[in-house]
């Protein structure tokens, strides 16, 4: 149904460390923005958690700050994977486990050795990693069964936020572990294969477009305003960026490196990554979200006494000749375009003449090599859009264009995911959709990295053989 002729919409993006909200005009203009930091706790070696109640409070806070008044709808997206367990009222029964968490690595190793992981990939196009919902649910079932007994729902971040705000217990087709991509519902045989059939009742109903009204007014938004559980952050960002043609892709250079390409078939190739069911029948996003990204660069900057503000000068003054970096700095290893929980970073070619700038350039190039590795595996053959904090650096964006050997259409601003959430909300309530944002800049290749990329692939292949035996 058509709710209004020219209604505004709000998109909320609940990130890992920041919650953002944006109010959009009908022509797609971002009118106002609000943001609140959230806390990611390191609960122990390889363990990362968040206070789900505090995360929901951050959503209320940004909506209060926006004060958008009556709107057509509010769309909520957020970080994917991890496990957010709540009771009937939507209150957390334990700290939410982040997608960065590595505690379920032994579960993944067990499923790999027994062949279960390959069965998951063959049936769904998804390969679980330590921080994804399936292994974490199994870990809790083995180590904290009483916690799951107290829970009513185990879902994604944005789904539990929507439940607290509206009372709706549901998820959308993009945010479902154990999904049969053909039926667009849970696969009972898969749950049985993974030994989780007895926890089926914790999985929320799968709806094409979950929507319910606000229980109470927030920041001038009236009670009853439709709140939509949009696709989670990866597909929401693709929707917000305007990825609409099979073969087009989106590169998000954030804490991690999220690479995804729109496809008309379920993922194949080396078992890794995700095949995300979209809201459009017959279309999937082949997503390879690598663990490398700005977090690894920040670590290198901190190690060398620099800050992100120093990046332009460092990239301008550095020379990576003779240096080789494998950028697998994440404590949980790597998950795309291959799965290797024991993956570790390497820096080769160091000597006393290497400067901090040289090391930063080599690291930025290595992250771009990972992007090419992922996007090639995902089947990119169309236009490439890019966003995320890393794209604020024109020099680094140029490195990506050079390494990828294709134009990179950069969408600056932090609202691509929020735009996708607002887009999903308007689509759900029947209002006119937002137009895709125009690129802020287009970077075209200026030099070839083909030889150095080939060296990178060889170094990765050699390292993988050692990771198999290295804890």
Automatic annotation (TrEMBL):
Q: What is the lineage of its organism?
A: Bacteria, Bacillati, Actinomycetota, Actinomycetes, Micromonosporales
UniProt-listed PANTHER family: SUGAR KINASE, XYLULOSE KINASE
Q: Which residues form the Carbohydrate kinase FGGY N-terminal domain?
A: 10-240
Gene Ontology biological-process entries: D-xylose metabolic process
Which protein is depicted? Answer: Carbohydrate kinase
Which residues are in coiled coils?
A: none
Query: Which InterPro entries does the record cross-reference, listed alphabetically?
Result: ATPase_NBD, Carb_kinase_FGGY, FGGY_C, FGGY_Carb_Kinase, FGGY_N
Give the similarity note. Belongs to the FGGY kinase family.
In its UniProt record, a GO molecular function of this protein is:
kinase activity
Task: Give the source species.
Answer: Dactylosporangium sucinum
Carbohydrate kinase FGGY C-terminal domain spans which residues?
318-427
Record's keyword terms, sorted = Carbohydrate metabolism, Kinase, Transferase, Xylose metabolism
For whether the record's keyword set contains Transferase, the answer is: yes
Q: In this record, what's one Pfam family? A: FGGY_N
């Amino acid at each position: 149904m058509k709710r209004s002729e020219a209604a505004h919409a709000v998109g909320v993006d609940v990130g890992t460390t920041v919650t953002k909200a944006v109010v959009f005009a009908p022509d797609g203009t971002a009118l106002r923005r609000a943001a609140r930091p959230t806390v990611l706790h390191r609960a122990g070696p390889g363990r990362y958690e968040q206070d789900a109640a505090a995360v929901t409070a951050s959503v209320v806070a940004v909506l209060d700050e926006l004060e958008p008044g009556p709107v057509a709808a509010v769309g909520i997206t957020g970080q994917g994977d991890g496990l957010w367990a709540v009771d009937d009222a939507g209150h957390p029964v334990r700290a939410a486990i982040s997608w960065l968490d590595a505690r379920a690595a032994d579960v993944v190793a067990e499923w790999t050795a027994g062949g279960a992981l390959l069965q998951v990939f063959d049936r769904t196009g998804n390969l679980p990693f330590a921080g994804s919902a399936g292994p974490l649910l199994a870990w809790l079932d083995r180590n904290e069964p009483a916690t799951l007994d107290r829970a009513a729902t185990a879902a994604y971040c944005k789904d539990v936020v929507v439940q607290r705000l509206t009372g709706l217990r549901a998820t959308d087709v993009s945010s479902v572990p154990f999904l049969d991509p053909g039926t667009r519902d849970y696969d009972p045989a898969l749950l049985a294969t993974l030994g989780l059939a007895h926890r089926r009742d914790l999985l929320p109903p799968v709806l094409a477009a979950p929507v319910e009204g606000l229980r109470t007014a927030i920041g001038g938004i009236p009670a009853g305003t439709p709140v939509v559980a949009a696709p989670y952050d990866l597909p929401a960002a693709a929707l917000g960026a305007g990825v609409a043609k099979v073969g087009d892709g989106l590169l998000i250079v954030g804490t991690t490196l999220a690479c995804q390409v729109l496809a008309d078939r379920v993922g194949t190739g080396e078992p890794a990554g995700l095949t995300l069911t979209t809201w459009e029948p017959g279309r999937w996003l082949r997503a390879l979200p690598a663990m490398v990204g700005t977090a690894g660069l920040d670590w290198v900057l901190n190690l060398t006494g620099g800050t992100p503000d120093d990046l332009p000068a460092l990239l301008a003054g550095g020379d990576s000749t003779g240096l080789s970096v494998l950028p697998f700095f994440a404590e949980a290893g790597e998950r795309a375009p291959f799965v290797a929980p024991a993956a570790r970073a390497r820096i080769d070619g160091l000597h006393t003449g290497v400067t901090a700038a040289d090391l930063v350039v080599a690291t930025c190039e290595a992250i771009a090599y990972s992007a090419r590795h992922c996007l090639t595996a995902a089947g990119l053959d169309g236009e490439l859009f890019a966003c995320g904090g890393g794209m604020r650096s024109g020099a680094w964006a140029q490195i990506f264009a050079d390494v990828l050997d294709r134009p990179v259409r950069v969408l600056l601003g932090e609202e691509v995911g929020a735009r996708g959430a607002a887009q999903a909300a308007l689509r759900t309530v029947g209002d006119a959709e937002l137009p895709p944002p125009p690129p802020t800049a287009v970077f075209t290749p200026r030099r070839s990295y083909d030889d150095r990329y080939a060296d990178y692939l060889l170094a990765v292949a050699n390292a993988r053989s050692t990771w198999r035996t290295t804890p």
